[in-house]
Structures are given as structure tokens and as C-alpha cells.
Amino acid sequence: MTALALPPSARADGRIATPAGILAYTTAGTGEPLLLVHGLGGTRRTWRHLIDSLATTHTVIAVDLPGHGQSDSPAGDYSLGAHASALRDLLAALGHSSATLVGHSLGGGVALQFAYQFPERTDRVVLISSGGLGAEVSPMLRVATLPGAATLVAGLGRLPVGLTRRILPLISVVPGVIAREDARSVAEDLRGMARAQQRRAFLRTARSVIDWRGQTVSASRQLGLLADLPVLVTWGGRDRTIPPHHHRTLVQQLPDAHSLEIANAGHYPHETAPAQILPAIHAFLRTTQPYRPALPVPRTSSG
């Protein structure tokens, strides 16, 4: 059963200085920390349908990744590792030693990288339409890595959002582009591309994980860690940005993982089907214990 939602007034927005620059975030609730990580070109606004419900049991922190939303641009490194380090710095600045990470799309790849770099700081991982699980990706994202993409993205960002929302459903009939269910979410992300900083973060981050052939970064090296780490994998059955079979394959590789496929959702199930995804997240958090990696046995001198 989905927990009762808190009133929006219970949320608080903040900005905090970290070694990665000033990071913007929204927080709500009390309890174990739950860090929400948006996808490529997105912002923390993507979590608006989940925050209040999750805050009934956890301290929820929704962050704008470096260069995105209201966060400062990084010095130049937009890699998954740099984003993961920024999240570590954010948690430390807010006084949290560890957290459960919930990542959407690129945010799922960042969450996996965080678990790889900082296992002692990772309680659980929730992957929503996660990247990094296979090479295939939408042609629209591959185009973003080509020369001249900045001009195209800037033009799309300047279109009135109402016009974009009318155009995208028409484009959705083209195989492999976007799901009709995602038109509103994609339109909102494109609106953000009118800002030079957001556009730069989108392009540089995209080029750090994608080229014209597809995704270039794989989470295969992290799968060994995930065997003991509590993991929830959820995705939309109509996702055209990242193929659903990526997530089905991951679940087969991780027999202890919790999973949920939402048949009538696309790439943004947390936005378009929150009533279906929230009970799964609440149940996962309630029935699993935070991961605690075994400490290495100290070597002793035979002196």
C-alpha cells in the first residue's frame, strides 16, 4: 500500500558548497537517507511525484547533478565517476555517511558507479530505466553526440513547450524514437535546453557515455558488487530510449534482485506511472536491510 503523501510545504530547497561546486537539492522527511538522481538533461523536478510519499519513511534528497538545473557546472569532468564523487561530497556535506540511491536513466548509471566507487556508502540501489546495461540506446541520444548537435539541441530548446508536446507524439510513431507516454516528460527536458549551462551539461555528459553507435559505458564490472547489494530494477515495457530487454537480462543475472516491469509505461515510469512504482519502492525499502560490505581483514606483521 502506498504511504500517504506529505503536503508539498514539507519540502525544503537548498544549495550547498562541495568540492564539486555548489549543488542544488530538495529535501523532505526524516529517517534513512534516500538520494534521488535524475537522468541525462533532467533536473530534480523529475521526482516531484515521488518525493512526498517517500518522505513519510525516509529523508529524501533530490539533487541536481553538476551542470544541471540549479547546480554549478563542474570544472570540465562530466563522467559517471565525477558525478558519483559529487554525490559522495553532497552526502558528506549534509552529514550522511551512506544512502539508498534511486537513479533514473543516466542516474541509474551514476548510482551503479557510486556503488562501485563507494560500496561502504551505498545502502541499496533502485534502478529506474537505467543506462549502462547494454549498448543499445535511442537514435535521438546517439545524434546528440555528433558534430553540430549543439545547434540542433539549442533550437529544440527554444521551441514553445506546447508546440513540442504536440510534435513529439507525432514523432513517436517512428520506430525506436520515443514512446508516446514520454512526450510530456521529453518536452520538459527539451525546454531546459534553452539554457546554455543545461545544454552544455547534456551534451558533455552524453558524449562521456554514448557515441554514434550507442552506449559506451557498461556496468558489467559492478555486477559482482550487486550480488550482495539490495537492488530493485524497474522499467517501462514501452521504453524506446533504453530497450526493456536490458533490464530483463539484468534481473536474470541477479536472481535476488527485486523487479517490476510496468507494461504501459515508457522511459519515465516515475513520472507517468507513480501509483504503480511507489508501492514497489516502499516494499523494497521496508523488506531489505542496508548493505554493509565486509571489512578487509588487517594484515599482521610476523615481525
What does this structure look like?
The chain is of the alpha/beta class and 303 residues long. It has a domain at 8-139 and 217-287: Rossmann fold (3-Layer(aba) Sandwich), CATH 3.40.50.1820. It is 37% helix and 17% strand. The strands form two sheets. The chain has an eight-stranded mixed sheet, sandwiched between helices. A two-stranded antiparallel sheet has the order 7-8.
Distinctive features:
single chain, 303 residues, alpha/beta, Rossmann fold, 8-stranded mixed sheet, two-stranded antiparallel ribbon, 12 helices, 10 strands, globular, disordered N terminus
Question: How far is it from the N-terminal to the C-terminal residue, by CA?
Answer: 60 Å
**In angstroms, what is the radius of gyration?**
19 Å
Helical content class: 25-40%
Order of helices and strands: EEEHEHEHEHHHHHEEHEHEHH
What general form does the structure show? Answer: globular
Query: Which spans of ≥5 residues are poorly predicted at pLDDT below 50?
Result: 1-6, 170-175
Q: What secondary-structure arrangement, pairings included, does this model have?
A:
Elements: E1 12-18, E2 21-28, E3 33-37, H1 51-54, E4 59-63, H2 80-93, E5 99-104, H3 106-117, E6 122-128, H4 139-143, H5 149-158, H6 161-171, H7 183-192, H8 196-209, E7 210-211, E8 214-215, H9 223-226, E9 231-236, H10 244-253, E10 258-262, H11 269-272, H12 274-287
Parallel strand pairs: 3-4, 3-5, 5-6, 6-9, 9-10
Antiparallel strand pairs: 1-2, 2-4, 7-8
How would you summarize this macromolecular structure in one to three sentences?
The chain is α/β, with parallel strands linked by helices and 303 residues long.
